[in-house]
Design goal:
2 copies of one chain form a homodimer.
Chain A: H1 4-11, H2 15-23, H3 30-43, H4 49-56, E1 61-65, H5 76-91, E2 95-99, E3 117-121, H6 128-136, E4 140-143, E5 154-158, H7 160-173, E6 179-183, H8 189-204, E7 212-216, H9 225-236, E8 244-247, H10 250-263, E9 272-277, H11 280-283, E10 291-294, H12 297-313, E11 320-323, E12 326-328
Parallel strand pairs in A: 1-2, 1-3, 3-4, 4-5, 5-11, 6-7, 6-8, 8-9, 9-10
Antiparallel strand pairs in A: 10-12
Helix pairs in contact in A: 1-2, 1-3, 5-12, 7-8, 9-10
The first copy, chain A, binds a DNA duplex through α2 and α4.
DNA sequence: CGGTTTTATTAAACCGGTTTAATGATAAAG
DNA sequence: CTTTATCATTAAACCGGTTTAATAAAACCG
């Protein structure tokens, strides 16, 4: 690989001149420009992004830290979210460094990555990385809330308590008091939040939660989210008397729908289903179409990217944003009489 | 941000020593190690990945070039593929630099990216980037075939002609000679290949293609793949006499299924559907479950990553691999009598 | 105890760019 | 025809690490 020095020598100019020809930051006579460009082509010279980054302290790359399990595929939520980040970054000339690597225990290995800022998905409780990025002065935006709360860090989040509440309220208004909630995995904070919101809805309506049953997704028991929806319904219908189901994702709802078909349950006449949707297209593609709460994962991603890019420009910015979920009425729910 | 120099000075050692403490490439006395580490902590020193990369000419990052349209979401195929690449890279300690940026016209802007190798999705005809990576001596693996063929470049590909042939043969064996092929967008090479394979199947069976109708996806006419499947079926059923449909993706098939429900067509009794599936899970989640050809997008991605990592170790390697598609019989097809 | 080997440490060169301050040439102004 | 301002160009310092060759100190050996 030819370097800027090779080009400079062969073109009989200084490396600073070659640099200027390529960066166009300083005027260079057309004569010299042409000569340098010709030599560069002959030597197959391409500027080195790394060396450049080192000098100008800028990479035009955004880091995206996203914990992904070794065995399982990304969830629809994650896919949509990445989508949003990429789309926004791409629009503004940034590339995305996807980092799904598990963290090394040895603090010696923490390094300043080749990025201008970082978006971090699902920070853990007391996440040490948050402080580390502060020390590094790397702009950081979380997707999800810092725990414990820290108002000096930027984050974008759903209000999952509100989401749970919203769904609960909707179902209660429609006369459903016996509900099966197919919740996310119990180690996820979103699962706890949504559950709390749902309970709050029951409380504020003065309805007992005695007919509210909450189940949790478990990688051990369930092959995939659809399977979770399928077996949960198959195993519980008949034993329990619920009139409505809340499914953690579209895929879970899909599995539940499959089960209802096999059991001969008519949706929504005999059973109402509402999905927490991470894939707005899929929710419209089922039959019946799913009444769902749009989590707007893609919006979450693009808003995080927008905020980060703002913070890269001006590190001083501190801002949080809660993305509201929208309840979209389609065909899978009905008033219980 | 503290640098290695700051640490060296304050600890009263040379920068080479600090470097050795962090890289552990050279033995350093425990006494010095501790002192350096203490100072590093006090100054919040973190090694700079960029500077390191420049010196050792290695980034542990793999570039993934993937053209994504500004307005539309990633297809299931792309998602699965990225998934495969990420999973494999992550397993081996590499991160992935996602590059969806459109190429700049000005050749001045081509640079050696901060990556150890590149995976490029869907190279264009006469793609100038292929030669450029050769000149840069950057390991490159294509997903899709180089056009014109170049046996010196590494690539991983489906055999789309064979896929078309396979599906055609299966349907013909089952007595279907009137077929509607909901093909991909006509500007995609895969669309042409699959169509060719399908025609070849007809030919070799000695069946006239007069009742074979091929449609193409068009971003202008169709909101999304599902919508494409839906309207295509709604508009054509009755006018045409096909007994089987080939859907370009699971989502297209999903739309078609939706239409059949509304039209009261019973699958597979009145109409057979086979999907070219990029989402193996989804194909099992529809009702009826889709008989489909698994494109194995994730496998494509992980194989590309494997090959690239091999090539990064040994640049001399030249290897191509064709991933076979598997026809999986489920519930959406039946013998036509 | 002197000579050889081993070990930890360092100074300096290097990776491939950018940028500042200085310089010489050219154009504009008086 | 000076004097001054403008312009293209350059040498050298710099970004923050790694690595090589040299060196001083400690360990080994007969």
């Amino acid at each position: 690989m030819a370097t800027i020095n090779d080009v400079a020598k062969m073109a009989g100019v200084s490396k600073g001149t070659v640099s200027s020809v390529f960066s166009k930051k300083r005027p260079i006579s057309t004569e010299v420009t042409e000569r340098v460009l010709a030599v560069a082509k002959e030597l197959s010279y391409f500027p080195n992004h790394i060396a450049r980054s080192l000098a100008i302290k800028k990479t035009m790359i955004v880091g995206l830290k996203i914990p992904i399990s070794r065995e399982h595929a990304m969830s629809g939520f994650e896919v949509q979210l990445i989508n949003g980040v990429i789309r926004e970054c791409s629009k503004r000339g940034y590339r995305v460094l996807l980092d799904t690597l598990p963290e090394h225990d040895d603090p010696i290995h923490f390094a300043v990555d080749p990025v201008d800022g970082v978006i971090m998905l699902n920070p853990r409780t007391q996440d040490p990385r948050i402080d580390r990025y502060k020390l590094m002065q790397t702009p950081l935006v979380l997707i999800g809330r810092p725990d414990p709360m820290d108002e000096t860090v930027c984050y974008i989040d759903n209000d999952n308590v509100k989401i749970g509440n919203q769904v609960g309220q909707y179902l209660l208004e429609n006369g459903h008091t016996s509900i099966l909630f197919l919740n996310a995995s119990s180690d996820m904070t979103v699962a706890a939040d949504r559950k709390r919101g749902l309970y709050e809805a029951f409380e504020s309506s003065g309805v007992s939660t005695e007919h509210l049953k909450v189940m949790h997704y478990s990688r051990k028991q369930h092959r995939n989210p659809t399977h979770y929806g399928y077996v949960s319904l198959k195993n519980s219908y008949g034993n329990h008397d619920y009139t409505a189901i809340i499914a953690d994702t579209d895929r879970v709802a899909l599995g539940a729908l499959q089960a209802t078909r096999e059991l001969g349950i008519v949706i929504p006449e005999q059973l109402s289903i509402v999905a927490l949707s991470d894939d707005p297209v899929l929710a419209q593609e089922t039959s019946p179409k799913l009444t769902s709460v749009e989590l707007s994962a893609e919006l979450l991603g693009s808003e995080a990217a927008k905020l980060l890019l703002k913070k890269i420009k001006n590190i001083g910015i501190v801002q949080q944003k809660v993305i509201d979920a929208k309840l979209i009425l389609r065909e899978s729910c009905k008033m219980y009489v």
